[in-house]
């Protein structure tokens, strides 16, 4: 039987898109405490199936597919620009395809305005009316209100009309920044993107026997299987080591490892790869919120995904991407890298930030290991010995040196210099992912 938390999530999923949700309403309808209802609604918000808007409340929204992740809902726009809804609340769940700035004559504006877009405009009543007439939502800048008939038109067409105190340029920059952030999120690979689903994976139950393990082994060629109870919840893991020397009629629950490491679909590729290296795990069960088996992810799945990521162009760049892109290999006989301290790499004092300094050391070490064909690293420990301020526009040199390297372990010493002066040193101990 599903828990109260799961029942609330299922109830929310069954609601129509655009439906308004409240803690008190959920608590009353499902006969649960306000605290349970609140926690479930927050979980639904984390899953992207509801959105909470100040002065409006929580509404059911359409779950975004990853290919449309960079698109924003009007509800998200309100939170981005700290706006308030003047009309058209029923359309807050809708997704905008593009936004335009209505700083033009009405006939010119008509050519660019289309359904499901957002028109950013000041205190121009006719422009607001035209936009709504063409099926576009309206964002009024400068903190202005609008006429009552415009609000009624927005309600009739279920198109939000929003007011914000920010000016047009600031609003456009804020929305662009939000879309850019969504692009970065879209490029992050999650377990849910690459795992083998429950329908295609192999598993055993606690009451199965070692004979069933051999049967699955023959079918799949795998040697590791998740173990589930009668509700498909993961309770253990069984491998070839666990069954050696055991009779075929012994139950799996007698030999399995209990409470295995598990991940969820929203776990990032970086996290699961670190878990596999750190714990020495080849296969990890993928579960949902109720701990029910959704599938498995293997070390091979992770390695293939890591290789694929390196072949893809970056659309949304993080600070790490900027740092890595600007790090160039010199033609020196030893492996040496150079870069220049750009404004994005500095702190509020205009000197190289500690975070970027750490990234430079890690990236240079990673490239050195790849040069020696040792594989990719997962940092286990990083010690920075000292660092002197490095001002903006300085040219710096990074010299990584491999001190020790084994099959799954490496130790590196890194020097960072400006000219011939050492400004920082680092010692990295890392685990290796052999490609």
TrEMBL record:
Domain CBS: 195-254, 256-312
Keyword ATP-binding in record: no
PANTHER family according to UniProt: CBS DOMAIN-CONTAINING PROTEIN, CBS DOMAIN-CONTAINING PROTEIN CBSX3, MITOCHONDRIAL
Keywords: CBS domain, DNA-binding, Transcription, Transcription regulation
Protein known as: CBS domain-containing protein
Keyword Hydrolase part of the UniProt annotation: no
SUPFAM superfamilies per record: CBS-domain pair (SSF54631), HprK N-terminal domain-like (SSF75138), Thioesterase/thiol ester dehydrase-isomerase (SSF54637), Winged helix' DNA-binding domain (SSF46785)
Organism from which the protein derives: Virgibacillus halodenitrificans
Pfam families associated with the record: 4HBT, CBS, DRTGG, GntR
